[in-house]
């Protein structure tokens, strides 16, 4: 099956050496984390992007806040989406896959009680891990300007509450700090260390701006699994899979790859349609319709219809053959 050309090729490019086999059902995210290896999780934001990512066979997926808020509400990732809106997206996407799904939960949608509620809600909805950050509310996308962080005490309290609120230790807590941009790398590392001490399973220092900064993060926080956010056009260096692993990272999320590929292909196709009145010029940007039907699961529909095509006739025939019982006084 060939998924959308731009989106599939973009997802393939983030894996050095080709696709990796998808995990068996029930595989935990924790079991996929190994020192010296890098787990890659592409960003998914709706059912179609998730289905395509599954066809490419990633071992983990990342429900991107930017992409999910943009695709669902058509608004910026700036703290506008509510807990209710986001947990429903978690439930929808997690229900479509057995691949571990890491889910963005911003600041936890309020105070400490809200953090506890969010953790329980995301876990019950099927997420494999929840990402919580130390920004003030309303938060902003991590590679955009104007971000402010709460005090380290409040940030650590969020993580402690998150850890104590989960029901299973296999549901991982990813603690993110945005302190690098406004308070410097030393403070970001200090917060990362405090998050690990508070029980975070994975530490995420957002927006390091050089390989040297990433090296320091790996050296000083390497006792805990580290996550790097690889955004095309963002602040953090885009490196090879092997280099990220050498620097001490165990997970790389590529939250923007799929929606940037989609945005480019859709704009080209619609521009061609507007300018020419037909789709001849943009055929190369389009997936094969029949193949895309298979990607979306239509084979199951066709098989179901074929299996049950004569079911009513069979039931009618069996009822006709069934002996009638007489009733009397």
Order of helices and strands: HEHEHHEHEHEHHEHEHEHHHH
Work out the radius of gyration: 23 Å
Please, what is the average pLDDT? 90
- Main-sheet strand order equals 6-5-4-3-2-1-8-7
Largest sheet: 8 strands, parallel
Strand fraction band?
A: 5-15%
- Counted beta strands: 8
SS element count, helices: 14
User: What's the overall geometry?
Assistant: globular
* Contiguous uncertain segments of 5+ residues: 1-5, 13-25
Helix amount, in percent? 40-55%
Describe the structure.
α2 links the parallel β1 (39-44) and β2. The protein is of the alpha/beta class and 329 residues long. Mean pLDDT is 90; it is low at 1-5 and 13-25. It starts with a helix and ends in an 8-residue tail after the last helix. The longest helix has 20 residues, at 257-276. It contains 14 helices and 8 strands. The radius of gyration is 23 Å and the shape is globular. An 8-stranded parallel sheet has the order 6-5-4-3-2-1-8-7.
